[in-house]
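Practice problem: Circadian clock protein KaiC
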Amino acid sequence: MDDRVKTGIKGLDELIGGGLPRSSSILLSGEAGTGKTIFSLQYIYTGAKDYGESGIYLTFEEKPEELRKEALQFGWDLKKYEKEKKIVILDAASLRVGVPTEESFYVKSDADIRALLSKLYEIAADIDAKRIVIDSIPAFFFSEEPDKMRDDIYMLGRVLAETKATSLLITEIVNSKGYSRFGFEEFIARGVITMHLVEGEKTMPRMAEYKRSIFVRKMRETNHKIKQYPFSITKEGIVVYPQGEIY
Ligand SMILES: Nc1ncnc2c1ncn2[C@@H]1O[C@H](COP(=O)(O)OP(=O)(O)OP(=O)(O)O)[C@@H](O)[C@H]1O
Ligand SMILES: [Mg+2]
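Answer key — structure tokens:
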């Protein structure tokens, strides 16, 4: 088996030695609306469609129906692969707000972190998942107590390692500071990719245009440049421009 896992993001794999290091966890970090969910849907969808790799999308915020709709904008029909059990969307969003779910895969509303992780593991074993997305880490925490959070993230790391899948852990940057929300996330991540909106040239006073950029901040076992690359969200999803300059 190839030791790199193709992200399916045009232009990105060539910047990171052919893909993500297999069986590792990578943090995908960025401020609100920078494209983290689209990136992750693209990763799961192309995995199933182009590389024959099954994937699980564990969602805590958006409902599965919303994700399917978001994906469909780019022509990604998740349902098709869900029917074949090549993709599973695991619904942990409905339980958080206490509304019923019609999903086949969901986390019960009285579940604790162990129950949640054992459900994740069970599905991963069942469909032989090679890719897992956790959307998102801040929403995954059951407690805001630092010791508890550290335990939770450690347990998540152990379970993900046990599955041998290659995972994307979505986290957020607040006010452009750092690249993880709490700092614990980095412990279990072998790589960090951040997504940004940067202010471009002002065409008129006070009329700044924002540009999207992506940055591979850390990637073990990988020779990569420390540089921000421009990307755009096209009708086929995210496209990174390896030769492009942001300014
Ligand atoms: N069809 C589309 N074409 C181009 N851009 C789009 C399209 N759909 C969404 N976008 C852009 O992508 C953004 C949303 O991306 P996404 O949901 O992946 O962000 P996110 O980083 O997950 O945000 P959050 O932190 O709020 O979850 C929108 O704000 C919009 O700018
Ligand atoms: Mg999102």
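Discussion: The chain has seven helices and eleven strands. Students who identified this feature from the tokens alone can consider the problem solved.
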